[in-house]
Amino acid sequence: MGKCAFAAMLLLLAECANSVFEVESASGHNSALSPMLLGAKNPCGVGLRAASLEDPFEAAYVRAVAISPSVGNVTSDLSNVSLVWSWAASFPTSAAFPLPSDGNCPSGHFEIRNPGAARLADGKISYGYKGAAKSIPLGRQGGNPFPLELPKGALFESGSLELFAPLDVVLEGRIEVDYDFRKKEYHESCGMMGDYSVCGCEPEFESGRKTYFKDARHERTFLVENGDSCDFWLNPPLQKRLSGGQGASALLLLRRMPSKISAIENGREIASVFPYSFSLEKGECGEEIAMAVFVPHDKGGVRLNASGSPERMPQLALENEEYLPFHFGFLWNATPGRKNLTIAFEDSFGHETNFTREFSVREPEGWKAGGIGSENEGAATLFEHGNDFAPPSSYPAQEREAPGLNTGALAFLLGVPLLIGASVLLRLISNRLG
């Protein structure tokens, strides 16, 4: 029975060159795009608002755009994970805003012009994963994509009941821009002219350089593949006395979504299947998003079924964790001898996990037809020596001949009367001579 013990499987943590094309394409595209997401006017196309006297920003935001590499919203803790992010500021080159009227005087106005370059002040990223939290400053001109340090390895106890672990990201900062301004206001002024009080509106001017700022914040949760997968062999159930001509199948309990599942016999691939079909979509900030749909494509007579949702299988696993079950079946016509059969699956990010099991394969039909000096002698030699290939229970019973007539017993039965008769005859002859 396959268990989710780490010692029962070999986990290859090295990056694989055969990762999914769409995942690599999205990662490369988003990495090239990332510098253009810092300080642009509105790269994510949010709805613009009208500038106002107190807030001239038409748009001002920070945004967690994408996790890289990823499929949809999911990445892997075995990858070098980074965050593609954006900050943006859109504002007019000049604007005039009316000022409130002061009593009987006309309203003045407030003009802004000659804006400087926008900047992100006090920017920082905070992210929490598996109970650990980090907070790191963000540079307004660099650090995009921003690398994230995610611990690798077994699940924390509190996170074992979900297929994916949440990665909570918070971006914060203050977006600033400087303007030249000119302010013109009218104030009522009264004085005496002779015996009369005369009032009028006097203009008042002010100019200078003014800094506008706006606080921005964005929260987003990504998902992370983590933990160990395991296997449960359905057929063949035994590791010895296996007939070579039959199919094989295993239940794979996966916590990482496979891009390819294959069966390998002694280093030779004998069957494979590609469970998902991948495509690319465009995100709202111009990023590429790799998407996956379960549409198996196989070669080698593979049968693959997948559950529609994660399941818990405490009977087969050491922990009550969630898995996505895959039933992987394929044809396996093995020749006699010791065989290493490996089920390997590559996840969408190029990491490979192997489940290897050793079998001793026999062919009972070959024993009857084979033998020393026969044409099938090679088939019989598998059972002529005590070794791992053929334990005693795998030897066919020796054929016995049908029972025949026991001549020894017959001679004994026939000889008894003769001996009795000879004894009587000797006594008669002795009496007469005496």
Described by the principal axes of the CA atoms, the overall outline is rod-shaped
What is the element string, with H for helices and E for strands? EHEEEEEEEEEEEEEEEEEEEEEEHHH
Please report the total strand number as a whole number.
23
The multimeric state of the shown protein is single chain
Number of helices: 4
Poorly predicted ranges: 1-17, 364-400, 407-414
Any overview of this molecule?
The chain is mostly beta strands and 434 residues long. It has two domains: 21-224, no CATH class; 230-382 and 389-393, Immunoglobulin-like, CATH 2.60.40. The chain has helices spanning 21-33, 364-369, 377-380, 407-433, and strands at 10-12, 38-40, 59-68, 74-76, 82-90, 94-98, 109-113, 119-129, 132-137, 146-147, 164-193, 196-225, 230-235, 242-243, 245-254, 258-265, 268-282, 288-299, 303-306, 311-312, 322-333, 337-347, 352-362. The strands form four sheets. Strands 1, 14, 16, 17, 18, 22 and 23 form a seven-stranded mixed beta sheet that branches. Strand 16 and strand 17 form a beta hairpin.
Produce a short descriptive summary.
This protein has 434 residues and is mainly beta.
Which descriptors would you attach to this protein?
434 residues, mainly beta, Immunoglobulin-like, 2 domains, seven-stranded mixed sheet, 4 helices, 23 strands, 48% strand, rod-shaped, disordered N terminus
